[in-house]
Amino acid sequence: MAEPVAAAAPADDSLLRVEGLKVHFPVTEGVVVQKRVGSVKAVDGVSFALHRGETFGLVGESGCGKSTTALAVLRMLEPTAGRIVFEGEDVTHLGPARMRPIRRRMQMVYQDPFGSLNPRMKVRDIVGEPLVVHGLATDRAAYRARVDELMDLVGLLPDMADRYPHEFSGGQRQRIGIARALALEPSLLICDEPVSALDVSIQAQVVNLLMDLQERLGLTYLFIAHDLSVVRHISDRIGVMYLGRIVEIASRDALFAEPKHPYTQALLAAVPLPDPAREAARPDELIAGEVPSVRNPPAGCGFHPRCPEVMERCRVQRPELASRSRGFVACHLYDGGG
Amino acid sequence: MSLPAPALLDISDLSVSFRTDRGTVRAVQGVSLEVRAGETLAIVGESGSGKSVTALSILGLLGDAGSVDGGRILFDGEDLLALDDDAIRDIRGDRIAMIFQEPMSSLNPVLTVGKQVAEPIRLHRRVPWREAYARAAELLERVRIPDAAHRLGDYPHHFSGGMRQRVMIAMALACRPRLIIADEPTTALDVTVQAQILALLKELTREADSALILITHDLGVVARYADRVAVMYAGRIVETAPARTLYGAPAHPYTEGLMASIPGVDGAIGARLPTIEGQPPDLARLPPGCPFAPRCQHVLDVCGTVPPPLERVAERHLRACYRDG
Predict the structure, then answer these.
(1) What domains can be seen in chain B, in order of their start residue?
(2) What angle do CA A55, A246, B264 make, to 5 degrees?
(3) CB nearest B263 (choices: A62, A226, A230)
(4) What pTM was computed for the model?
(5) Which of A157, A276, B94, B227 could bridge B175 with an S-S bond, Cβ 3.0-4.6 Å?
């Protein structure tokens, strides 16, 4: 039989452990008197662990809950259930005051380098703002030196710090966002689609920068993206999400060489490879249907209406994420082991 | 290899500029390309490369700020740039159709889907509504919208993103166009749905022996669906070749850099990606000579003087570069 789900999170060297995380949003009816009529289960029982210094990729299509998971880890959304353990401390229910020092240790890099920087602030103030907010900018000279150092760290010239965001290109703005995220010396960086708004030739520059920074600063990354080729390049391990659940976790090479969950298989088959010769050799079979609405998810396994291997059990019983010969899979096909 | 039929679309030396507060933006310069019936041509490039502007000029949709400064667009032997507004409107949606990126903003939210698909049929074929609706139902079925006949009365918001893009394809196919231009048709869609939509589009255009111009920034999509590729950079075509040639033996330094910077399936763990340093030039302040020269590793003295012409390197393979070989 399958191991219980908590096994997805070994306790030893993990920087972050997420156990059975649920984020449900109420659905209400009525204008004056709002009545709760149900809930959207955006994240519904997600468990994974991040080892120190690794990059954990979280992939899935829109609405699968990957960004909601990130926001809950940062406590920018309240978890409905489950546990978030960061640097050995259970932070699931910490109040704002006790959460403050922990926020310094986990920072976020956003997708949109255009929308996430205040256009009226000079880059120096954008990068240095977290230092001010956390009361670390007491000495003016030290503050300037720290911002210069951060600019240099992300490959920008310190004298660019007195300009405004609109004077920078998309790739440079993403570097500014990264510098700001690093200001408080976090141990965990959550990157939510950090390169998907950038042009191909600029994407590679930012991916390389993230890899360099990880090496120099010993950072741990939770890397959320829908572009599998970027995730494959940067990740040590990958979790695949579908309809608010993790369906598979594996090392990157195992996942791409031998995807176990039928959804992972379908996802990998749907991604076009940048190589016409390989493309011509691939079978034309494509998965049918679309991702169901999280408002009204199917019973049993969320993937069963599209699954080519669907069995009777899949329609009624939801498979749990369980330890397999390699990684973790949530699928009844492997109920007998494998 | 001899080229059989004459090109369905033959663009030569097209130049387009836009007047902005920052001065004249040279969006497209000296673009020449051909598309044959039954062929899928991908135009690839990054934002600002001129790929969408090229497409909009074909349909006369540049708007007031844009102007065609020179060139010729022959479609079935007829110069589209010489036609007046009425004549081009007769062609648009009839013999040439366009599919845009965002199906939600391209569909009218207050009209039923049936009416929107039937409209171009009624307009261009001058048939009564009843007949147009019957044809609309057929079309929705062909793009595999489940229970199509009963969904004619539904509004766009009743459909998912993927289904809306199917409706857009049905509209585009309504008058059996000879040429379909799809501008980032699946960028807003999830990857499993993207694959379904592109496969459908390719199948339907091939069946009708229409030509498809696929505008995209996704080099995976290009590899899977295109027969031939034109690579644009800063308003110019820098290289054009059959898809396999372009990926197997790119000849322009920009194409080479682009191919190298895609995270590959064989990349080693921890390896850094080759990058093209710098960024594309400002189209209002283009350097003289080759627009890629400031980022090029193989730059020669001549590159900074006059832009290199698009010249033949092999059969059906052209590039604009002064470098040897």
Answers:
(1) 1-95+180-187+210-265+273-325 (3.40.50.300)
(2) 45
(3) A230
(4) 0.87
(5) B94
